[in-house]
Amino acid sequence: MGRYYYGMIRGKFWFGVQESNDASYFKEGSYDNKAKPRYYGCDCPITDETQLYCAVHFPNYDGHYNIAKLFLEDEFKKITLPFLLKDPNHEICNYQYHFYKNELPFIQSKLKSLEKQLGKQFLENINFKIPNPNDMQGMEYDYNINYVNKYEENKEKLALIARWCLGKQIEYAIIHKGECNFICEIG
After folding, report:
1. Residue 170: which residues within 8 A CB-CB, separation 6 or more?
2. Which of 45, 117, 144, 151 would bridge 125 by S-S if both were Cys, CB 3.0 to 4.6 A apart?
3. Are residues 108 and 171 in the same domain?
4. Residue 1 confidence (pLDDT)
5. Quick one: 17 and 68 in the same domain?
6. Counted domains in the chain
7. Whether residue 122 sits in one domain with residue 50
8. Within this chain, do residues 158 and 112 fall inside the same structural domain, yes or no?
9. pLDDT of 43-71, one tens digit each?
10. From CA 19, how far away is CA 37, in angstroms rounded?
11. Terminal CA-to-CA distance of the chain, rounded, Å?
12. Which domain-ending residue is among 56, 75, 92?
């Protein structure tokens, strides 16, 4: 469980240091206060209620059902199959962001500002990489864990590192796709 962002880029916000609206450092997003339903078991948002299970985490309905029933064993005895594996107690709101190619110079200037704040040693110890450039969903970053761990008590520094990583994902998507659109979960 945690807060995620998904769309042209995806990832999980750094627990305890990164806000759901962190991309607002690069551009203001729009807030959607209409709560979205979630699937049992994996906590993914339900975007299509005709899709009875989460196809992102499960190969089929039965696989998702077997996991979901572990969460509410008593409730699952009262239902008729198949049914939407929706968690009525966990809905989310979100921020939506849309970045375009003409905004790239501004985003890059914000990244340079973060790099200046983080220092030369930071750039030597973190590596932004795209494991599979054909899969825009596969954006990741890698870092020297010993370098990041020394800032464990410095949440401000960790927040800057997390923001830089998110900004690099946005930059990469704009360079290679001409835009970057994604949704950030709140709460």
Report:
1. 9, 23, 26, 97, 99, 107, 180
2. 144
3. yes
4. 42
5. no
6. 2
7. no
8. yes
9. 677 777 777 777 777 788 787 777 776 65
10. 21
11. 11
12. 92
Q: Which of 45, 68, 92 is at the close of a domain?
A: 92
Both 117 and 151 in a single domain?
yes
Q: Are residues 76 and 131 in the same domain?
A: no
Identity (one letter) of the amino acid at 49? E
How is residue 109 written in tokens?
Answer: 């200037």
Q: Which residue has the tokens 């699952």?
A: 76
Q: What is the pLDDT of residues 115-168, one digit of tens each?
A: 999 888 777 777 666 666 665 554 555 555 565 566 566 778 888 888 998 998
69 and 99 housed in the same domain: no
173 and 103 assigned to the same domain: yes
* Beta strand pairing call for 86-100 and 30-39: antiparallel
Amino acid, single-letter form, for residue 115: E
Give the pair of three-digit tokens for residue 125. Answer: 């110890």
Which residue range forms the structural domain that includes residue 168? 4-36+93-186
Q: How many CB atoms lie within 10 A of CB 133?
A: 11
Token digits of residue 130:
């795209």
Q: How far apart are CA 28 and CA 16, in angstroms?
A: 22
Q: Which of 10, 5, 48, 51 is nearest to 135 (CA)?
A: 10
Residue of 73 and 129 predicted with greater confidence: 129
Q: Would the pTM of this model clear 0.85, i.e. be above it? A: no
- Which pLDDT score is estimated for 72? 59
The amino acid occupying position 120 is K
